[in-house]
Amino acid sequence: MDRRKIFAIFFLMVMMLIIIQPVCADTLPIDNETPTAVMGQFAISDVSPAQGNPGDTKVITITIENIDSERSAHDISTLINPDNVDYVQIEGGMAKYGSDQVLPGESFRIQYTISIKEDAPKGIYYIPITLIWSTSGSGRNRVKNQQDLTFGINVIDNPEMMRIGITNITTVPTLIYPGDAFTINVAMKNTGKNNISQIRAILTTEKAFQSVGSSSEQYIPLLEPGYEGVASYNLQVDKQATSHLYNFKMSLQYVDNFNRLQNQQVSFGINVEELSGVYIQDVRVDPTSLYPGTEGLLQVQIANAGTNNVENVRLPISGGEKLLTQSQNFIGILGPGASTAETSSYGLLINKGTEPGNYGLNIQINYDDLTGRHFSKPNLYIVKVNQPTSLIPIPSSLIQQVGYALVFLVIFYGIFLSVGSRIDEEQNSDTGDDDERST
Fold it and tell me: Model's pTM, two decimal places?
């Protein structure tokens, strides 16, 4: 082999040893070496449960993920420094063994028992946790690393310690109709174990309502545990308000025993009743005059004066000494402000033996509202059966003229008879005189 090639190969080998040797020397581990801080290899992906109440003691599970895409971690342990924990205490050991090995992208779980102090204010408490691991399982190449992470515990108010409950909602008057002015009384009770003070009860109303003579915000200085207070509001409902259940929202702002401002939301419903219901708009009889032996038609027209649909509308009629050929009509649904497009008709048949006079008909309006409540309203209507008359009806004026004519004829006939008898007497008298002269 050429000496120059041998020399070149030898030179390359020497240079490789010179380059590689310092790197290997830097990575040689020394047992019990102080861990080197490494940033960004691990992250906390979940804490469960992440919240608690003052006085709680619970076990939390912390999920830690290896977010490095190339490096594995071995012999992982965790440590929480108790000096850095204020209102949240760690029960049991502060150091935990996590996992033998966590590959890139994988995670492991660690559990701690925490205890929240009774006087812990509401808020999020951040707890530091330190991870310590090795770069390999064993051997001279193993290096220890550490990373500081933080997880949070959200401390919320214990509902048994601080609570306002709505115990009763009343209105004066009890039934509210469109256009009414009324009062809402909201009774509230401190159902917790601590004093509640500086209570502001703010009522948010629907568009159909407005405050009258009072504020929509009421103030209660103090509620001790177990005691009640009442907030009253004067309102008026619009005349055009539709009838249904309206939702009212109330915001309760108060100060707790730690002098913290609290906010609680409640809601309740107020029902607006129907202004009026269904009534009879018109009743007609055709023909207008009824006589024994005639037929006719009774027409009943109804209207919905309410603000909602009414359903199952029925019109049964009773009484009338069997003047009707049918006793009920079914209409169904009738909208607000609407009337029956066509009157409900009932046949009338007046028998020849029916006595003339007035006959009462009980027209019943039956219907249901949207809540399923049933309503029934009676109405009395009088049907008159007249005296029988001649087959050919003669107007009264004609009868009067005929009467006058008859009277005139009688007088004329009397005069005629009187004049005729006088003429006869005169003729008889003249005949007698002639006879005497002839004799």
Answer: 0.41
